[in-house]
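It is worth pausing here to work through a concrete case rather than discussing structure prediction in the abstract. The textbook approach is simple: state the sequence, then state the predicted structure, then interpret. We follow exactly that order.
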Amino acid sequence: MHLIRSTDIALRVVMLLATDGGRLTVDQLSDALDVPRHHMAKVVQRLQRHGFVATARGRTGGVGVPPTTLDTSVGAVVRALEGDREVVDCDGPPCPLRGGCHLRSALRTAQLAFLAVLDDVTVRALVAEPAGPVLLDLVPRRTGPLP
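Step two, the predicted structure:
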């Protein structure tokens, strides 16, 4: 199973924001994770659309995680961002083996097992020791929590 790059970045954004409940700007996230600002803005927008982050405008604004995100499973985040795509596409163009091939169902079973493992991991668990302090060191200054 391979996550698309934006899902990988999104998980790192959620982890970074979840470490202390503070807010970061898109620029700070971009710098901390070494991702182009434009791409980071798109990732934050997708996370906001799914409710995993909240944003506030203005001088004291930024991006933060609502308290409910801490108890969200990583599997839920991955499903929301990746969708229900299968590992292989047997239909476009149609594979000549699809009538008698067992590969598609085996890969689907493996994908479901992969997501089931991620369902057992929460965002809170991702930012627990020893990861939390390392994440905090990535960004020097943060603003307060979201209202």
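Step three, interpretation. The CA atoms of residues 26 and 41 lie 6 Å apart. Residues 5-136 form a domain with the Arc Repressor Mutant, subunit A fold (CATH 1.10.10.10).
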